[in-house]
Every structure is written in structure tokens, then in C-alpha cells.
Amino acid sequence: MFPIPSLYQLVTRARNAIRANLPGTDAWLWPNNVNPTAKVIGGMTSELFGFADDIQRQKFALTANGPDLDLHGAEINLSRFQPTRSAGNISIVVADSYDVAYGAIFQRSDGVQFVALAALSITGSGTITVPAQSVGTGSNTVTQAGTSLSISSGTTDVNGDAAAVATVATGGMTGGTDVEQDGATFNPPPGTFRYRILFKKRNPPQGGAASDYVIWTQQANGNVTRVFVEPLWAGIGTVRVLPMMDNLYANGIPQSGDIAGITAFIQTVQPSAATVTVVAPTPVAVNAIITGLTPSNPTTQAAVIAELQAAFLRLSQVAGIATPNASMPYLAIPFTFLQQWLQQAVDNAPGVTSGTVSVVAGLITAAGAISTSSATVTMPNVSGYPWVVPGMNVYDITAGKQIGTVLTYTGTTLTLTANAANAGAGSTDSLAFSASPGNTSLTAGQIAVLGTVTF
Questions:
Q1: Fewer CB atoms < 10 Å away: N or C end of the chain?
Q2: Which architecture characterizes domain 203-280 according to CATH?
Q3: Neighbour count for residue 356 (Cβ, 10 Å)
Q4: How far apart are CA 274 and CA 322, in angstroms?
Q5: What are 57-84's pLDDT values in tens digits?
């Protein structure tokens, strides 16, 4: 790209030009009229250069912004998502006859309100399922199923003798979106307008290719970020689509209401011969123990968690049976989440000089005290924990200390390779077992997500 001179450089050019072309003048001296003239010329030229530079940025979808990015989207039939309301059902459990008026108001604990879209009533005890939508717009109106709601107005307890309990019904309140953001230049993250534009330009519609399902899924719901596609997952003509909503839910897994909306949209654009299944990925929690964190304080612990979350967002993907293709990272392929990625995340955490990650295979509550004078620990019967194998590391979460390494686990006796390195806190300590390497192998439809992190 053409380098834009600074304002000072342009003024200097003007001063030198005046000195060269008007013998006897010197725009470097003050006071004289050619000094401010050079500044005016430099300022006007700088403005012209700035305008030219802006034109250069706006002509590419990689760098355009605002209304100009909207025009790039319009060229390929994409428009920016505008704020929308969430919608779903509210479940009201009553012990006696109850009326709900059209327009009844229900409220979340943080003040977000929902309005009933139908008038319903019930005689006697039971459950009323009321269709509703949010009063306001935005992704903050999206609400998990089971969330408690207070009843603000528009309902009548017919006999005045029974309390009603309102919650968000199965499926949740879904579909609420914010104005879609431009996204970073050159390498925008999923869930932004620039990402959708660049993806569609790089993957022109082909009437049912795997990339088409990414485009359609992201077009169906403005909260969709990553999309994974598994062609032929159940035979010829079948396609499975697994969307993520990383910016909306803690683990990125959509609710059933989100899935229903995406399914309905894809059915309007998919090839008629295709059998398409849209499902939420199945999360597999990866629990980690960080030992030897130096220094260990709230700031470094928060930094480690932030790096771990970023690692999962960047590296984790939905597993599937598709054939790997480096140019198609959205395919659901056989996948294992590696422990070394977690170790790298800890090493990258600001302020951390050292720390070791162990991935927890499982937790078991001990049935007896742990003593440094013994290599055995009384446990529940091994029949319930067949995954415990020799060589696993044992960490006492209750005491926050390392215990040892598994030698055998027979009946109700866990035997370590040596006496316990540290005593337990009591007779029912929670013990974490981890293997090395602690890689997490996934089956089709699963995705690794960050679970609990213990320091």
C-alpha cells in the first residue's frame, strides 16, 4: 500500500517547495506570510491523502467498515443482523384455576421482561404454557430454560388461594440478537459480519456443499459463531450440522430453541434430496488441576483461566467422521484435544513463571483417612470405577495436596507406589485421578469444553 506522509512531512515539503520556487523567500522563518501558507497547503494535502487512504480501505471487505462493509455484503446478498427479540414459552405451574391475559408481563431477576402473546386459562391445578417474547431486543434477552420469572402483571388467580410459579419452558427464550459487529480487519472472528462476508466470498454457494451449510447456519441466527458440518454421517444424502454460540453461552452449546430455529431456516434453503440434521454438540468437560503455579495468587489464577478459555475457543472442535481437509476447517473430523495445549496456555498466562497441568480423568470420594505413614487408602469398591488404572496421579482436592501414584486398586483398597506424600484433610476427601498424557479423545458429535480448574 502507498505510504501516507505525516502532516509534518507534508508541511516540510511545502516549505521546501516555496523556498525553491520563490527565490528570496524562506517559509521556515517567522514571521512571514509563506510560513502559514505552507501549513495550510500541508494540511489540505494531508486531508486529501487521508481521503484517498480511506477509499483504499473501503474497497476491500478485508478492511472496509460500517456502511461500506454493508455494501460489500449486499453484493453477495448478505445483510448485517439487526437487533431482534427473544421468543419461546413460559411455563406457569398453578394449584388452582388461573388466567393469563394477552400482554401479561413476566420479569427476570435482572429486570429483563417478557410479554405473553396469547390469553390462556386453566381450571384447577396444572401447568399453563404461554408463548411469549422479550419486551426489549438484544442477546441479553436470551434466557436459559428453567430460569425463574416473577409475574409482574396481567394474570388472575381466580379463587385467590394459590401461588403461581413461572419459569422459562424447555427450549429457552432464544433468537435475541444485537447489531452485528464489523469484526477485526483481515482475520475477523466467527460471529461477525466481516467473517460471514469473507467466508461466503471464499466459499461460493454450490447448492449443498459443506460450506453452504456453514453460510446457512450463520444466516439463520445472529448468535451463531463456529459451525461444524459432518457430511454422510448416517449414509449417502445425509448431513449433520453442529452449531456453536461461543459469545452467548458459557460453554457455547445452543439451547433446543436455537436448534429448532436453525433447523426451520435450513429447511427452506437446503437441497430437496438432502436429509439434514441440526443438533447441538455434546460437551465433554475437561477438568484440570494446576500444581506448582508460581506465583499463585488471584491475579495469576484468573490469567490462567482466561488463557485456558481462549485455548478451548481457538483449538477445540466438534469431532466427526468426515475426512480431514486442511482447506475445510469446518468439517467435523476425528479429533483429540491434547493436554499439551493446556500446558501451553498456562505457560502463556501473563505473570506466570511456572505451573503444571494435569487433566482429571475422574473424581472419587475416599472412604477413609489418608496418612503419610501408609501407602493404602480405603475407597469405595473398584467395581464402580473401572477407569482407574496403574500409573494415574492422585491429587487430594479437599486438602489441596498431591497424594501419590496408583499402583493397584483392588476391592476397596487403593494402593499407592509409596506412602502418601501428604496427609488428607479428613476421611471423605475428594480425590482427583489423572493420567499422563491426559489427552481427551472425542466421539462423533462431541466437543471438548473447559470444566473445573483446581489450583
A1: N
A2: 2-Layer Sandwich (3.30)
A3: 11
A4: 17
A5: 999 999 999 999 999 999 999 999 999 9
